[in-house]
Amino acid sequence: TACEITDCLGGDWSLWIPSWLPSWCPTSENQLKMAEDRMLQCVDGSFSRQYVPISGGNLLWTLTFNTDGVKGKTPVVLLHGFGCGVGLWAHNLCALSQRRPVYALDLLGFGQSSRPLFSTDAQEAEEQFVESIEQWRAKVGLEAMILLGHNLGGYLAASYSLKYPGRVKHIILVEPWGFPERPDTADEDRPIPVWIKALGAMLSPFNPLAGLRLVGPLGPTLVQTLRPDFKRKFSSMFSDNTVSEYIYHLNVQTPSGETAFKNMTIPYGWAKRPMLQRIGLLQPEIPITIIYGSRSSIDGHSGNTIKAMRPSSHVEIIAIRGAGHYVYADQPDDFNRRVLQVCDQMD
């Protein structure tokens, strides 16, 4: 799942750290803000940044592009994946806003958005995410949207569209999480080793990224060591550790959305409420585009399943050559071009 800084480290080990050690994790909300500012310094053109208020005193951090330049075009709303934030769209924001408005928001519980307490019930937590997006839409004043979601954002885009179909003109699912059901039995050709099952059982009570908070001051170095690929993905923009520092500060704040995500999963990262069980209920006139990276380890069969479930609806599957799970950063030019083509079919 997105921003897998640790695959299965993750209740939350960091909560065991005494409260009298405030400097254990070298981070703060201001450091996260500065890290995001550095991520966006290479984004050309003017754009606005604001906190959009929703219910419960919560705020959703939002970037807005090209709202005045193009009239009559359905805006694209970008929903990031697990452990990510608006800064990771740095390769895409300018290109996608060439011909229509683009909004990118930090999901509730992630990034610079508010980090409230979520329900421990998977369905209720999912509804909290969905309602926050709907309240955000109403506050911003959008009549309808093209929803583009990566990873967890794809799952939430589908869930939102099921509840508020009149607000969605097109769904673009980018390497979506949470669609297939967990297999009843392991693949006979690829059985899960006993030690992995034992480790998974031992760590299952913990949040996915708790290990990052547990190591405290070593966290930034851990991100650089475990995920050197992120530096490569953005090497055309940054030659230093800007990206890994942003990812670090994103994921060592209060683990609000992270805990919600944990409560929406069952062991080995499968969704408690698989979206394929419900996506067939989506109104048939809403088109779906699924984008995968050709080198991704994510199961791409869900796209074919959706296509079979919606024979009378528009379902398009796009594979981006040379891209992995972070397709929008691995092959940004190809990704941006294909997304623009999809959007131009709309209006």
Automatic annotation (TrEMBL):
Coenzyme A-dependent lysophosphatidic acid acyltransferase that catalyzes the transfer of an acyl group on a lysophosphatidic acid. Functions preferentially with 1-oleoyl-lysophosphatidic acid followed by 1-palmitoyl-lysophosphatidic acid, 1-stearoyl-lysophosphatidic acid and 1-arachidonoyl-lysophosphatidic acid as lipid acceptor. Functions preferentially with arachidonoyl-CoA followed by oleoyl-CoA as acyl group donors. Functions in phosphatidic acid biosynthesis. May regulate the cellular storage of triacylglycerol through activation of the phospholipase PNPLA2. Belongs to the peptidase S33 family. ABHD4/ABHD5 subfamily. GO terms for molecular function: 1-acylglycerol-3-phosphate O-acyltransferase activity; carboxylic ester hydrolase activity. It catalyses: 1-(5Z,8Z,11Z,14Z-eicosatetraenoyl)-sn-glycero-3-phosphate + (9Z)-octadecenoyl-CoA = 1-(5Z,8Z,11Z,14Z)-eicosatetraenoyl-2-(9Z)-octadecenoyl-sn-glycero-3-phosphate + CoA; eicosanoyl-CoA + 1-(9Z-octadecenoyl)-sn-glycero-3-phosphate = 1-(9Z)-octadecenoyl-2-eicosanoyl-sn-glycero-3-phosphate + CoA; 1-octadecanoyl-sn-glycero-3-phosphate + (9Z)-octadecenoyl-CoA = 1-octadecanoyl-2-(9Z-octadecenoyl)-sn-glycero-3-phosphate + CoA; 1-(9Z-octadecenoyl)-sn-glycero-3-phosphate + (5Z,8Z,11Z,14Z)-eicosatetraenoyl-CoA = 1-(9Z)-octadecenoyl-2-(5Z,8Z,11Z,14Z)-eicosatetraenoyl-sn-glycero-3-phosphate + CoA. GO terms for cellular component: lipid droplet; mitochondrion. It is found in: Cytoplasm; Lipid droplet. The keyword Nucleotide-binding does not apply. InterPro entries: AB_hydrolase_1, AB_hydrolase_fold. Residues 75-330 form the AB hydrolase-1 domain. One of its GO terms (biological process) is negative regulation of triglyceride storage. Its EC number is 2.3.1.51. The lineage of its organism: Eukaryota, Metazoa, Chordata, Craniata, Vertebrata. It comes from the Eukaryota. Keywords: Acyltransferase, Cytoplasm, Differentiation, Fatty acid metabolism, Lipid biosynthesis, Lipid droplet, Lipid metabolism, Phospholipid biosynthesis, Phospholipid metabolism, Transferase. Its main location: cytoplasm. This is 1-acylglycerol-3-phosphate O-acyltransferase ABHD5.
